[in-house]
Amino acid sequence: MGIASSLLQGVRMGRHRTPQVQTLSSSGLWLLCLVLGSAVSLAGQQSAVSIQGSPVCSQSPQQGPPSSHTGTTNVFIGYATNGSFVFPDIATSPGPLTTAGKFKLFVNQSISPPYILAAALGAAFNQARNVPEGYGQGWGAYGGRFGANMARASSSSFFGTFLFASWLHEDPRFFPESKPSLWRSLKYSTQRIVITRNDSGKDVFNTSGLLGPLASEGLANVYLPSSEQTVGKTVTRFAVDLAWRVGGNMFKDYWPTFFRNMGLNRLKVIPDPGKSEGQGLR
Question: Greatest CA span in the chain, whole angstroms?
């Protein structure tokens, strides 16, 4: 009887507490669904971009699944270091890219965070200087500057990463060094502006990497204000594009090594630049 009374009392108390739990669940329902949906989506994408054939990807069947905390951490760090999202053109394999692979790389570059961030910051900087003056001021003018920056970056990737690279059989990817230093990385990043690999893995003159931004800036004269449609302005924009590429190459050169030096290789999703093949091993 004492046990039955205790159970009956617990049921009655649970009935009184139910509305409170429902209230809390209703207020946080959309947030919970959003977090869970994002986690599931990212987990699926991370699995798709895992490096095939890498020793770190093969695990014994006796190992149990990782905890939810570790899995979530792996997703974000895997995306950052594999170059599939932040820097899509970081090479994760020594083999050549197919024409379809180069087209996919162009698409991924066009929507990558560095392209969007650079376009947004560049538009804000030019808005503050009122350059080009033809856009004027206001949110509409900022949108015009941002759109022009995105169009220039995307068309440069289309010409250099896909069209000319496929035609000339050149590899548009960046192969990071195994152990970069500041001076060595600056030198290497500058060299990769004029030197690239062909589909056979040999160093060649980076024709596609130079013709791409040049063709992009020539095309930009169609939609930029008339004050920018001169030979001098076109050459200036082309030179600035190349200078920005040197800085971008330095970021990409340090990207895998940074995570390795932070001790994050234990998460088993980070490619070790010291074990990769290609130009980076120098």
Answer: 97
Handedness of CA 11, 17, 23, 24 (dihedral sign): negative
Q: Confidence band (pLDDT; 50, 70, 90) for 115?
A: very high
Task: Say if 17 falls within a structural domain.
Answer: no
Q: Residues 209-218: what's their mean pLDDT?
A: 98
For residues 164 and 154, give the distance between their C-alpha atoms in angstroms, rounded to a whole number: 14
Q: Is residue 239 part of a domain?
A: yes
13 within a domain of the structure (yes/no): no
What is d(CA 271, CA 259) in angstroms, rounded to the nearest whole number?
9
β-strand partners of 204: 196
Give residue-wise pLDDT tens across range 214-227.
Answer: 999 999 999 999 99
Containing structural domain, residue 255: 74-269
Separation of alpha carbons 265 and 267, rounded Å: 5
Q: Is the full-model pTM beyond 0.70? A: no
CB 180 within 8 A of CB 274: no
Q: Is residue 280 part of a domain?
A: no
Residue 158's closest CA among 200, 213, 113, 77? 213
Q: How many domains does the chain have?
A: 1
